[in-house]
Design brief:
Elements: H1 2-34, H2 38-41, H3 43-51, H4 63-74, H5 77-90, H6 93-118, E1 121-122, E2 128-129, H7 132-140, H8 143-177, H9 181-196, H10 200-228, H11 233-244, H12 257-273, H13 280-284, H14 292-319, H15 336-348, H16 352-383, H17 387-406, H18 410-447
Antiparallel strand pairs: 1-2
Helix pairs in contact: 1-6, 1-12, 1-18, 3-14, 4-10, 4-14, 4-16, 5-12, 5-14, 5-15, 6-11, 6-12, 6-14, 6-18, 7-8, 7-18, 8-9, 8-16, 8-17, 8-18, 9-16, 9-17, 10-14, 10-16, 14-15, 15-16, 16-17
Length: about 475
């Protein structure tokens, strides 16, 4: 397994170093320009939309619930363990590159979420299904590439990431409370089963409460630590900027240099905020909205919350820690989530340890639920929503959670990086080719903000959209 982990790690490093970083940032810049800086120009609308979209008509999922599902998947161990890993491997400069990937990625997130809305289909249970697999098939006419994307996503989010989140929970509970891994595995299966077997609607109801609450609590802890170290804020920012451009070699990561900072920051940023990966659009498509651009705005702000707020919170917690917990440029005794917990305790006291453990548990568990939703949408794409397929996936998720809590997962993490990279490559090509539809929807929204979107004979769109959803409602009285 060590050899396999090394091989997968080398492939992953090549993919991210020489291909994905350039594509992610390049695509983000392209859509930032084409949308007129949508992530900056429409930021106020994003905030208003996030708080004003709690209700859905009929049996559908509200826009806020879809946002919460996306946030639940985004805000997980990548924000706590992943940021700490990036700081060790790439130094404080890794955080700068996480910010850059997120800022330009907000435009990418807007486009892919809007496309998910435009090309979504109505499902038999009253909800909607959509996302890259659907807009690749319906927009580009390729069922094959849609299916390849779906397989990559199911492996990443239905298996690998479920294992990784469960593994983090088991490790933290064992190191802090000496709870055996088998007990954690059993407990997670018992907690997860009734929620995932309730389907996407039940996940949405849990996510809309849990995801925002955990993010607020975690950010509050970070703000307290920042307030205590208020005079150190300029130093921390200086450390991040200097390390990002190799101006202060003494604080480079253990992997060394600017390239290490870019690699660790971009990879962990992508893993955390998922912009361009093609995962969050699966949640975005399930929402009931009056205009596809509205969900694009809401999913875009999710990237901001995830990276600019939650990931930055972790960075400031660790960088403000005492030197015996973490010193930039050295290999600390603790790693990942344990390093973040120790850093927080060094600032606020040992009492915070159990609180952090509970937060990490909730972060990781909510990601398990959000990841399941993504996998379910793509399993439905492959099977047509057959009942046996839904039960098979739910069982597969539970098995993955149990195995993840018990196993060493270096090879799984590295292979998940590869499949996640494959998803991103396919999705980035698709959204560039289909971007004109999202740009048309954005133009329509800016021209007709108060009017519900209608695809038929819409002069702002590049053509007739293949849909039976975004059409004028028929008068039942004839």
């Amino acid at each position: 397994m060590d050899t396999l982990a090394t091989i997968f790690g080398d492939i992953s490093d090549f993919l991210y170093t020489y291909i994905l970083i350039a594509l992610l940032i390049g695509t983000g810049l392209y859509f930032t320009i084409r949308t007129g800086g949508v992530q900056f120009r429409e930021f106020g609308q994003m905030i208003r939309g996030m708080f004003g979209s709690r209700n859905a008509d009929g049996d559908g999922i509200s826009s806020f619930q879809a946002f919460a599902i996306g946030l639940a998947s985004r805000v997980g161990t990548g924000n706590i363990a992943g940021v700490a890993i990036a700081l060790v491997g790439g130094g404080p400069g890794a955080i700068f590159w996480m910010w850059i990937v997120a800022l330009v990625g907000m435009a990418t997130a807007f486009v892919e979420a809007t496309l998910a809305q435009l090309f979504k289909i109505r499902w038999h249970d009253g909800t909607f299904r959509g996302g890259p697999a659907f807009y690749i098939q319906r927009g580009l006419g390729s069922r094959t590439w849609g299916a390849i994307f779906a397989v990559f996503l199911i492996f990443s989010f239905g298996i690998s990431f479920e294992m990784a989140q469960a593994n983090t929970i088991a490790g933290v509970l064992d190191s802090n409370f000496s709870i055996p891994a088998w007990v954690t595995a059993l407990g997670l299966v018992i907690l997860t089963a009734p929620i995932v077997f309730g389907g996407i609607r039940r996940v949405a109801k849990v996510a809309e409460i849990v995801a925002p609450a955990m993010a607020i609590v975690y950010i509050f802890i970070a703000l307290v630590i920042v307030a205590i170290n208020f005079t150190e804020i300029p130093h921390v920012f200086g450390l991040i900027i200097a390390s990002a451009f190799g101006l202060e070699q003494g604080v480079a990561g253990v992997a060394g240099g600017v390239v290490a900072a870019m690699l660790n920051g971009a990879r962990r940023g992508l893993f955390s905020n998922e912009a361009g990966m093609g995962s969050a659009p699966n949640a975005a498509s399930t929402a009931q909205v009056t205009h596809p651009a509205k969900q694009g705005f809401i999913q875009s702000i999710g990237v901001f919350v995830d990276t600019l707020l939650v990931c930055s919170a972790t960075a400031f917690i660790v960088l403000n820690a005492s030197s015996d917990v973490f010193t930039p440029g050295t290999q600390p005794e603790l790693e990942g989530a344990s390093l973040t917990i120790a850093a927080a305790q060094s600032q606020l006291g040992s009492w915070l340890g159990p609180v952090m453990v509970v937060l990490i548990f909730v972060f990781a568990f909510s990601s398990i639920l959000g990841n399941y939703t993504y996998a379910q949408v793509n399993f439905d794409f492959l099977t047509g929503g057959k009942e046996w397929g839904e039960y098979l996936l739910r069982t597969l998720v539970l098995v993955s959670v149990a195995i993840g809590a018990l196993a060493e997962l270096a090879a799984v993490w590295n292979f998940a990086d590869i499949t996640m990279g494959g998803m991103a490559l396919i999705n980035l090509v698709a959204i560039v080719l289909l971007g004109k539809w999202a740009l048309g929807a954005l133009k329509d929204y800016r021209v007709n903000k108060e009017r519900p979107f209608v695809a038929t004979d819409n002069p702002n769109m590049p053509g007739e959209l293949p849909t039976d959803i975004w059409v004028p409602r028929k008068n039942p009285l004839g």
